[in-house]
């Protein structure tokens, strides 16, 4: 069975739905996805948050991030998305401010996403749908 594996390294950020799971597997069918949200969404997230997610899809796949709702403090709080299994390596996208409806695709079967907020102010946060497709 084809699958998208998700791993969360910080318990303050979670998957919408069953937050007790840290790994989720999706069958390779249309409209299958997971939704990641900032902590407390739709209420304001906490100051000083640092979250990290890793995603692995089957070989030959691409991973797509769709911003369903996205409002973070402009120029101070960021979602960063990159390719590969090392979040310190290749950053592909940096998102801040209001970006609802935006889609970003990683041309690899491995991706990561971080969320960082500064210590001063917060907004309502985000919901981001993560899905994959075969090339």
Task: Report a brief summary of the structure.
The chain is an all-beta fold and 135 residues long. It has a single domain (5-134), classed as Spermadhesin, CUB domain (Jelly Rolls).
Write up this protein:
It is built from no helices and 10 strands. It has 135 residues and is mainly β. The protein has a single domain, classed as Jelly Rolls, CATH 2.60.120.290. The strands form 2 sheets. Strands 1-4-9-6-7 form a 5-stranded antiparallel sheet, with no helix packed on it. The protein has a 5-stranded antiparallel sheet with strand order 2-3-10-5-8, with no helix packed on it.
**The CATH topology, please?**
Jelly Rolls
* Overall domain count: 1
Strand content range: over 45%
Please write the string of helix (H) and strand (E) elements.
EEEEEEEEEE
Fourth-tier CATH superfamily name: Spermadhesin, CUB domain
Tell me the number of strands. Answer: 10
Rg result:
14 Å
Compute the number of helices: 0
Query: Gap between N and C termini, in Å?
Result: 17 Å
Helix content: under 10%
Give the low-confidence spans: 14-25
- Largest beta sheet, briefly? 5 strands, antiparallel
Overall CATH architecture? Sandwich
Broad CATH class: Mainly Beta
Return the average pLDDT rounded to an integer: 80
Q: Tell me, what's the shape?
A: globular
């Amino acid at each position: 069975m084809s699958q998208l594996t998700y791993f969360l390294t910080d318990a303050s950020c979670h998957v919408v739905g069953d937050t007790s799971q840290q790994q989720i597997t999706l069958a390779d069918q249309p409209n299958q996805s997971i939704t990641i949200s900032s902590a407390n969404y739709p209420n304001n997230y906490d100051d000083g948050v640092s979250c990290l997610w890793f995603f692995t899809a089957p070989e030959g796949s691409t991973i797509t991030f769709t911003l369903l709702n996205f409002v973070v403090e402009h120029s101070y709080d960021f979602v960063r998305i990159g390719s590969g299994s090392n979040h310190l390596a290749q950053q592909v996208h940096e998102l801040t401010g209001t970006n609802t409806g935006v889609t970003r695709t990683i041309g690899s079967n491995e991706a990561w996403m971080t969320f960082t907020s500064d210590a001063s102010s917060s907004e309502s946060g985000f919901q981001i749908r993560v899905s994959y497709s075969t090339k």
